[in-house]
Amino acid sequence: EYRELTVQRAIHELERYLIGKDPRDIALHYHNIYRDSYWRSGPVLMSALSAIDMCLWDINAKALDVPLYRMLGGKVRDRVKIYVNGWFAGARKPEEFARQAKVAVQRGVKALKWDPFGKAYMNISPAELDHALACIDAVRTAVGDSVDLLIEGHGRFNKVTAVKIAKELEQFKPVWFEEPIPPDSIGDLADVKRQSPVPIAAGERLYNTRAFRELLNCKAVDFVQPDVSHAGGVTGCREIAALADCYYIPFAPHNPSGPIANAVTLQLAASIPNFFILEIMDT
Q: Is the pLDDT of residue 40 over 80?
């Protein structure tokens, strides 16, 4: 997101290492690319590495003429539960959100995610909060209790405001409150989770297994949300899912990034035991 050309350049820089190597040695190449980066991590390197890792897995699956999930241990499920993002495009008022939610549900959607908080940042005024709650209430009333609601924060609030919002959200029984504060401080997110009456989800802006280890050790989330495009591709997301499973935390991958990421994440969802739900863009 927002650094596409930089990541593209980083991928081409890795040609110096990759050209002439055997693409079947995925673990070796993943390790060497990560090890030999002077900075070891960062979103640009990890996004480039994620792309290469996805390509290497794809090459191997095609060479063996099997679906990728077969190489990942086979299927643990035949169907993948999804929630839809982007269903609300253009809505501003509660009645507009309600109308578009009904349209989505009529198409068979059973879980809806959106950010109802407008342009509020760090703090939220009483009027802004009342409007957000009215939008959520309108959607809940429109679709009933059988449809799951997931509330997005986009990492925009301070701790006090995040906790205030979380307490107001409880009445609507959301699946989770996502990224209530910026991703920079896992310890502060843990503080919010301890005070929140609703589950907390986060992880889309973390990009290696070690960051997720800290997230889990701090007991900062109820759901982990790595993105296959940034958190190490297939190899990285499998590691993160296995780590989360040690804490009995569900794996709910972030997935708004287009058809390639969607195809890869579906293969992961098919084969990871602690998978919970997958994000799908309405478009």
A: no
Specify whether 29 is catalytic: no
| Cβ-based neighbours of 42, under 8 Å, separated by 6 or more | 207
Tens-digit pLDDT profile for residues 65-97: 999 999 999 999 999 999 999 999 999 999 999
Catalytic residue from among 12, 29, 154, 230:
154
Distance CA 221, CA 203 (A): 9
Query: For residue 16, what are its two tokens?
Result: 């110096």
Query: What digits encode the pLDDT tens for the residues 214-254?
Result: 999 999 999 999 999 999 999 999 999 999 999 999 999 99
Q: Is 251 helix (H, G, I), strand (E, B) or coil?
A: strand
Residues 165 and 99: their CA atoms lie apart, in Å, by: 24
pLDDT score recorded for residue 38? 84
Q: Which of 29, 131, 230, 254 is labelled catalytic?
A: 254
31's CB contacts (< 8 A; 6+ apart) are none
Return d(Cα 148, Cα 61) in angstroms, integer.
35
How far apart CA 266 and CA 69 sit, in angstroms, is: 9
CB 198 within 8 Å of CB 174: yes
């499920």: which residue's tokens? 77
| Gap between the Cα atoms of 193 and 162, Å rounded | 10
Contact status, residue 100 vs residue 88, Cβ threshold 8 Å: yes
Look up the pTM and report it: 0.96
Count of beta carbons in the 10 Å neighbourhood of residue 39? 7
CA distances from 70 to 24, 65, 80, 263, 280 (A): 15, 10, 16, 14, 23
In the sheet that 148-152 helps form, which strands lie side by side, from edge to edge?
223-224, 200-202, 176-178, 148-152, 111-114, 82-85, 278-281
